[in-house]
Amino acid sequence: MLVAAAVCPAPPLLVPEVAAGAAAELGDARTACSDALAVLAASRPDLLVVVGAAEEEQAGAYLQGARGTFRGFGVDTEVRLGEGEEGPRPLPASLAVGAWLLGHARWGAAPLEGLAIDASLDTARCLEAGREIAEGDERIALLVMGDGSAKRTLKAPGYLDERAAAFDAAVGRALAAADAAALAALDPALAAELQAAGRAPWQVLAGAAQGAGLDGRLLYEEAPYGVGYFVAVWS
Fold this sequence. Notes:
With 235 residues, the chain is α/β, with parallel strands linked by helices. It has eight helices and nine strands. Helices cover 34% and strands 22% of the residues. It has a seven-stranded mixed β-sheet with strand order 3-6-2-7-1-9-8, sandwiched between helices. Strands 4-5 form a two-stranded antiparallel ribbon. Helix 4 (123-134) packs across helix 8.
């Protein structure tokens, strides 16, 4: 059963070594993520599953001990999803950022697993993946890594799309209210057009949270660099 969830943004820029001179610009986001992880630890889970979007070839489960790197972003920084044997595949970027957040917070409250979701996976399969995570009597917590639209401003990675602000506002309301139905109702086609990489992970959360009776709180909502970033906790 799902006992708590945290939603955090997944840009490698959250990692100070990647952001370099711009590291301070996401300081509030990192602080909010640390606060969200504290809520997860306080829920006393038996297992924490880190969920993030990835390309189809990277999708699948990652066991505790899996390693990731930010070499592709210009720095020789490695991370590890807790202690354990190194897996055969490196973590995709979204899970690597999650691993960095957990390492930064010195997570030790529960064992870890990772789940990379194909960013194009349809809603029904995302919901089913979430239900499978939460089934059974084990106390499960989720760390859900994902960004909103990358088309919030003229200088955004995807340029400006007038629909982006309304899409992100709807996501923010859903996360603040722990509204699983609203997350499940997000349009995958629109999310893809707006380059909202969090859509699939958020819908995994929606599946896991069905019937869990969790309350939500939005800790951070901004659009630095023209990309929607959210930090929320459900508990």
